[in-house]
Amino acid sequence: MSPFACKPDRRPAAVARIAGTVPALALAVLLSGTAVPAFAQSAMPVESAPMDSVQVGEAHLPTDPLAMAIARELSVNTTVMLNASANAGDEEELELGIQGYYENRVYQPLWVSDQGLNPHGELLISAFEKAGDHALDPADYAPDRLRQLASAATDTDGLAQLEVAISNTFVTYANHLTAGRVKPNEVNRSLNLFPKAPDPAVLLEFVDTSEDFASAIDGLSPNTPNYARLKTALADYRAKEAAGGFTVVPEGETLKPGMTDTRAEVLRTRLAQQDLFTPGSHSGDVYDGALVDAVKLFQERHGLEVDGVIGKNTLAEINVPISTRIDQMELNMERRRWMPDDLGSRYVFVNLADQNLKVVEDDKTVHTTRVVVGKPYHATPVFSDEMTYAEVNPYWTVPYSIATTEYLPMLQRDPGSLLAKNIRVFSGNREVDPWSVAWGSYSRSTFPFTLRQDPGEGNALGRIKFMFPNKFNIYIHDTPSKSLFDRAQRSFSHGCIRAEDPFDLGQALLGSDGWTKDKLEAVRNSGERRVIKLSKPMPVHLTYLTAWVNKDGSVHFRRDIYDRDKVLAKAIAQLRPANL
């Protein structure tokens, strides 16, 4: 297992700049490329120095030519690749980490020998060349340029330049594999994820001391089945693209089961290309049987209404080019790199793009439910927190934005308009008669009141809510608007998450604390407002994935309801290319 699963955020105590630890005279001599004078050596304590170095204070100075050349190269060329990564972290810290690693090993090379590239260096450049397997761009790591440097490295200075260039490139590559190419929160403020790349010194030491170097490099990517399955599917879709991609199904009238249409043959070909239809299981122009079943399977895997009817929406999804699907996979591999490998032994996972929630225990999904998420204008943010309690028969304190944009105009027209909704007006803790207020004198910026809805059937939160306190005031709750769950696309809320079967969900979340669905519903029926604390906080992960692969190998895609794919693709495209 990679030591970066927890993405370490620390530097070894010994890491320090060369210039900060080596006396000026000795450093100047070292960087000049000449041997250390005898009078300088005599001033250095050498009792514990390695055979290939001398010691000055707490630092070691190399004496063999290649190590000396590496030290010189590090002093001028540490940041050659760091600017290629928008998610590289603090540049000075990275520079310190790389220099500190080499200082601790007395500037001995990791990737080269006196004869040129060593096996580790060769294997690493090969990994750069295959970066596309991880949905990364090999050009960002300039393998061709590194091989040119290797071919031209005929002396110690050339080898040192190659050594440092490979280390700098490797740090960038490792950052991209472990934490992604971009900083999520800078791409979109709704993405409250802050992945941390590994410390360069720890990273270099890890690969240096690994018994299986190839496995160590491979282990830098997310160590999760979800990432591995998506990586495999990406390779499969690229092969499909190379074989000709997806056939376009012509437009025509809405195709319903039982109809006859000459497009049936094209449809069979198209669905077989996505492994949804078995050739030979259907023939002719009648749209029925196995072909309808294949279309329903397509609809299920693309978040459409599963009715077997090929209307405008289904046909549009069928005709999405395979190149677009590959782009989706690549973007979602980036998103997977933002997430920790360990989501917890028991957690709630909400995919906002899929508009579904699942409860997971020991890597097994124990409960699923459809959910309603925020409208595009009120997009639900991506973040993780911990659920601590549930509340049956809750009050609803109306958010200020809703109170001022939706309810204030109603109160200005009719002060009694909210009474039918069981919404009361408060000034501090004091209830206010809505008829006593001159509502016309208030605006969105001067509204001083709190609106609160009493518990009951019409409460906007329904009869139960699940709280994971966070700065966004987002939570999961019941809703009186049950009909919305019948729709394939369910982005209708102001940001919170509405659950279709909240009391079944309550049992999944609180059952280990003795709260069955029947007990929760009994509290609901009593009308009592009841807060129920979880004995152990449960992680809640709100995510946004438009492509993923299930355990059975089925590949799923979803509409980009918040346009986050577009924003992420643009951010990645704007990254500065590698500049070796």
Number of helices: 20
Summarize the biggest pleated sheet: 8 strands, mixed, barrel
Overall geometry: globular
What fraction of residues sit in β-strands?
A: 15-25%
User: CATH-wise, what's the superfamily of the largest domain?
Assistant: L,D-transpeptidase catalytic domain-like
Q: Indicate the low-confidence ranges by residue numbers.
A: 1-58, 80-86
Q: CATH class of the largest domain, please?
A: Mainly Beta
Whole-number count of domains: 3
Radius of gyration: 30 Å
Q: Span between N and C termini?
A: 31 Å
User: What's the arrangement of strands in the largest beta sheet?
Assistant: 5-6-7-16-14-13-8-17
| Mean of pLDDT | 88
Could you walk me through the main structural features you see in this protein, from its secondary elements to its overall organization?
Residues 346-523 form the L,D-TPase catalytic domain. GO terms for molecular function: carboxypeptidase activity; transferase activity. Keywords: Cell shape, Cell wall biogenesis/degradation, Peptidoglycan synthesis, Transferase. This is Murein L,D-transpeptidase YcbB/YkuD. The protein is of the alpha+beta class. It has 3 domains: 18-221, no CATH class; 246-320, PGBD-like superfamily/PGBD (Muramoyl-pentapeptide Carboxypeptidase, domain 1, Orthogonal Bundle), CATH 1.10.101; 343-557, L,D-transpeptidase catalytic domain-like (Beta Barrel), CATH 2.40.440.10. It has helices at 18-21, 24-32, 38-42, 65-77, 91-104, 119-129, 143-152, 156-179, 184-187, 200-209, 213-218, 225-242, 264-273, 289-301, 312-318, 322-338, 400-413, 502-510, 517-526, 564-573, and strands spanning 53-56, 59-62, 112-113, 116-117, 346-351, 356-361, 364-374, 383-392, 396-397, 423-427, 430-432, 450-453, 464-467, 476-477, 491-493, 497-499, 530-543, 547-549, 555-557. The strands form 5 sheets. Strands 5-6-7-16-14-13-8-17 form an 8-stranded mixed β-barrel. A hairpin with a 2-residue loop joins strand 3 (112-113) and strand 4 (116-117). The radius of gyration is 30 Å and the shape is globular. The model is unreliable at 1-58 and 80-86 (pLDDT under 50).
